[in-house]
Structures are given as C-alpha cells and as structure tokens.
Arylamine N-acetyltransferase
Amino acid sequence: MIYTQEQIARYLERIQYDGPLDVSMDTLNGLIYAHQCQIPFENLDVFDFKKEIDLDPQSLYRKLVLNERGGYCFETNGLFYGMITSLGFDAYPCMCRVMFGVEDPADHEIDHRATIVRMDGKKYFCEAGIGAAMPPEALEVAENKWQEMKGYVYCTRTVEEGWYATVRKTKSGGEKMELLFSLLPVHEIDFVRISYALSHSADSKFCRMRVVNRRTPRGYYDLTDDVFTEEADGKKTVVKLSRDEIPGILKEKFHLDISEPLRPL
C-alpha cells in the first residue's frame, strides 16, 4: 500500500468524494471525475516559481492534498495511481503522447502518463491529470467501441503496433484524436527523466507558458498565460486578464491560493 488509510481519507476529502469505495466501476468512475473537478492541472511551479518537481508519492501527497495545489500530469496522475492502488484496484502506470495539434505520432515524443486498470478481464484507460480534455470516466480499451460518459462520447483505436488512441466525437459529428497510450506496464522511475526534461527544457510547453485547467460539471476553466477561458454548457467566454487579476482567478476558479509572486509575461 502506497498511502495509509488516514491519507486516503484526507485525499477523498480533498476531492470531495463521498461515494462507494469498493473495487468497482462505480467507484473508479466516481474517483476519476471527482479528481478532475477538484485537483487542477497546473504548471505554476515550473513556469512561475522555478521549483523542482518531486514525484515521490509522499511529496505528491503533501503538495496536492495537504497544500491543496494542483500539478502537471506526472504529479496529478501519479497521486491518482497511488490512491487507487492503495484502495485495492489492480492498476499500473502507462506512457502516453498528448496529441493536441499533432497528427503523426512520429512528430511528438512521449510526454505524459496515465493509468491502466484491470477489472473483470478487461483493461480501462484512466486519466485524471490533464484537466477537462480527457474522458471523465474509465474508458474501456476496446477497438472502436464508442462509450458515452457524462455527455461525451469516446472510443479507443489502434494507431500503430502497441499504441492506442483515445478518440472523441465532436459536436459536429467528427472525430478528434486526443492522446496515444501504450498498454505496456512501466514503473514510477521511468517518468523521472521525462518529467525532468519537460520541467527544464526551453523547448517544453511547460517552461514556455502558464497552463491551468480544471473540469467543472458544466464544462471547464482554463488559464493559458493571461487568457482565461470558461466553457459552460458548450458556450465559451474568453477574457484577457491583467497581471493583478490572475491571482484572484486562480483562487476563485481553480481553488489555488497562491501567495508567491507570479512570473511577469
């Protein structure tokens, strides 16, 4: 067990989850959605504060649970994986490529982690750590099997040998490939150098811009540098913020009470 019962209880309080805790799909889906809605995806430590990212499970617990911060995928999905395995789920970490704006996997490096859960002879892709762009529940890994979840429709599809895509149906009836993942089990240590590169390289998106995102029951909140976007019931509102307005938005919309000065843009 990675986390103690006391730590699990504090995590459940943090994500405001009071549902079942048995090893079931209802529990798994509830935990994914609650985690997405309460723990934001954010790179403030990398972009604004120039702090080192520590992927040790206890460090993740202190930052994301006790200190009520968010994190980027290696942190948020790392915490989620540790919590569900401590609850008894049969799970392992997997490597991913986020494909926003990219068509060919050869054009984009591995830059993300998620979790595969095994249950009742099936495998499920679980993503809790990248904000509102991902499935809000566990997605069965089954070729072109469309699955409806909380108003969204997704499937998985083989892209190349060993790699699968999460595909979302758009409101216009099209399809959008969001992310590629591998079913090959990996270990926590496999993410250390990837995370270090993404948090230090001048070419990394996380070093070049501020990115904060949180799912909401009606859509999502997003902050990219100084541009705040709210999507609610399919309608988007976009506002450019002044430097003085950003801390208030971080607190009100993302539940991030930041006392350190943010980086000038």
Observations:
- The chain has two domains: 5-199, 203-254.
- The CA atoms of residues 51 and 225 lie 18 Å apart.
- The mean pLDDT is 95.
